[in-house]
Amino acid sequence: MKFIVFGLGNYGSSLGRNLVELGHEVFGVDLSNERVEKMKNRFTYTVSMDATNREAIEGLPLKEADMVVIAIGENEGTIILLAALLKQNGVKRIICRVTSTLQKAILESMGLTEFVYPELDSAERNAYTLDFREVLDSHRVCDQYQVAEVLLPHRYAEVKVSAIDFETKYKIQLVSVKHITEDRNIIGVMRKKRKTLGKVGGDLVLHAGDSLILFGESKKISEFLLE
Prior knowledge:
By secondary structure, the protein is an alpha/beta fold. Helix 1 crosses helix 6. The longest helix is centred in the middle third of the chain and has 13 residues, at 76-88. The chain is 30% helix and 29% strand. The chain is built from 8 helices and 11 strands. The relative contact order is 0.12. The strands form 2 sheets. A 6-stranded parallel beta sheet has the order 3-2-1-4-5-6, with helices on both faces. The protein has a 5-stranded antiparallel beta sheet with strand order 7-8-11-9-10.
């Protein structure tokens, strides 16, 4: 996959390096020549530019990118303006770093739905969730095992939990299920949220849009998603 990462500070540079190690093509962008120079041998490409310059933004390979990550953390105004420019240029998928509730609410009003919280999440963890679009969140318990929240595969929509052989076939465990609900954020914009159901029984029917919280080996969870 092809990524563009804006902001090559501690979080953005670490995220980009992890994505490259996972086999992806990563284009790094930062205003600082020093940061760009430091990362030029760790990313696929790097460039120094002002992220609020419309002409410079339009010169990037936005249409070829599978997703763009806004990892800038110093200036909320720059983040919001950059997000608007990316939306105007038809970027397929935008992942945005957020540092405050108000900032997130403003970005939600612009149509953004995917966010990362570097203060809570590691770049390695976020890189894994971006590696698989179906992975919404993950936490590595040790080198071998992890807990991951994943989108329900289409093949299991309208299927009972008991009909999916998680433990014998896939060698993973279903911890819980999340359903989509709606509420309003602090500026009144409707947003979708996931509500955890807690312990689930075999009679629960899964629906498109549900997410599953799974525990197991990383490769087994990947095999479940890619089957």
